[in-house]
Amino acid sequence: MRTVEKPALSRLRTAAAGLAFAFALALAGQAAAEEYRLDVLDKLRVRVVEWQTAEGAVRDWSAISGDYAVGASGAISLPLVGELPVSGRTTAEVADEIAQRMQKLFALRDLPSASVELAQYRPIYVAGEVQKPGEYPFAPSMTVLKAVSLGGGLKRGDAGQRFARDFIRADGDASVLVAERNRLLVRRARLQAELADKDSIAPPAELKDAPDLAALIESETALMVSRDRRQKVQLAALADLKTLLQTEIASLNKKAETQARQLSLVEEDLQKVDSLAEKGLTVSSRKLSLEQRVADVQASLLDIDTAALKAKQDFSKATQDETNLKNDWDAALAQEMQNTERELEAVTLKLATNQRLMSEALAQSAEAAAMKENATEAEIAFVIVREKDGRATEIPATETTQVLPGDVIKVQYNVAMR
After folding, report:
1. Which of 25, 356, 400 minimizes the C-alpha distance to 166?
2. Does the keyword Coiled coil belong to this entry (predicted)?
């Protein structure tokens, strides 16, 4: 029994070892086939050290170690080493070339040890019928389903619902624009009335059937009355100032006439006293008193002339202020009219665009509803767009298909019609 069992057991062990070896070779071949190849937007972490045999110590090349991103040219740029192409290569191949280049560049006795690991994969892109299409980071063992979940899952609601939402949104915007246009039209009518110096606002012909026309005209009329009252108050204040100045000028002129008559009389008395003084018939003190009186009247007359001149200058300034106020008012009205015309033109253009969007949304909603009635079923299809040898290739996929860095996952509906 033992002599028979030993050869059989030996054959079984030999067969098992052969199967294990074949399985290991298959795994090694699969790993080699699936070894990751670098490309643009990958981020690498490089570390370089050197064992110095003579010194028996390890030297850290910190100037070269660090994180690097693969640029659009498919290369990374290392300090001292320079530009290093990495696209399409493995991290081990890149590490080996870094070590070789450094040994040659710096004439190192020992080959330095370079390690290159993938710090961050290049992103993937999700497009089509998902909630949030866009760019997302890649993670190992990622499938199509996981990528779609990053995009918020499948887009909810059919095309008809989306077009209905578009119509409701456009209709709301149109209501706001119509209200803004009506307000601008009434404002323009108010400015036209102010420029023509009218007391009332003529309703715009475009708004003859508008339900809010009366309220808009009432609001603009109140503003016009307030502005007109403010301007009239300012003009009345300037008119009162001019009247006061005119009264002051007239009073100063009368006062100047009186002082001139007094001066004439005093000068006559002084001449008589001079004649008597020459004959010795009067004292010199009387003559001195009259001379002092003449001087006082002349000084008073000079002050009156100065005050009259100042009043005339103030009157001219008040007149100029009145003119400037009217001119500034007209200029402000003209500028406001220009701004209103420009805003009205912009709102009218936006409203026309919005109405076209509403019409398009209605048409598309009807088409979507008809398509839904004629559709028997709708299937979700996944397609992976992957670059191979510099060319984009479309690969049909399922939810469990593995995704690679840089892939574009397209999600679309395939509708079967009756």
Report:
1. 356
2. yes
Q: What is the mean pLDDT of the chain?
A: 81
DSSP count for the chain of H helices, then E strands: 6, 11
Cα–Cα distance between 90 and 35 in angstroms, integer? Answer: 7
Assign domain 165-370 to its CATH architecture.
Up-down Bundle (1.20)
Nearest to 186 by CA among 224, 155, 151: 224
Q: How many CB atoms lie within 10 A of CB 28?
A: 10
Q: Burial of 26 by CB count in 10 Å (0-12 exposed, 13-18 middle, 19+ buried)? A: exposed
Q: In CATH, what is the architecture of 42-120? A: 2-Layer Sandwich (3.30)
User: Which residues have CB under 8 Å from 386's CB, separation 6+?
Assistant: 392, 393, 395, 404, 406, 407, 408
Q: Quick: pLDDT tens for 163-172.
A: 556 666 767 7
Instruction: Examine the pLDDT at 267 and tell me if it is beyond 70.
Output: yes
Of 184, 204, 210, 177, the C-alpha closest to 356 is 177
Pair 131, 153: CB distance under 8 Å: yes
Domain range summary for the chain, segments of one domain joined by +? 42-120, 125-155+374-414, 165-370
Distance CA 213, CA 231 (A): 27
- Mode of pairing for the β-strands spanning 408-417 and 124-128: parallel
Q: Which three-class secondary structure state does DSSP give residue 140? A: coil
Sole residue written with tokens 């009635």: 373
pLDDT, tens digit (0-9, with 9 covering 90-100), for 198-224: 889 999 988 888 888 888 889 999 998
Predicted TM-score of the model (pTM): 0.43
Choice among 155-159, 260-264, 344-348, 392-396 with the minimum mean pLDDT: 155-159
Q: Give how far Cα 70 sits from Cα of 44, 98, 113, 117, 157, Å.
A: 8, 15, 21, 13, 40
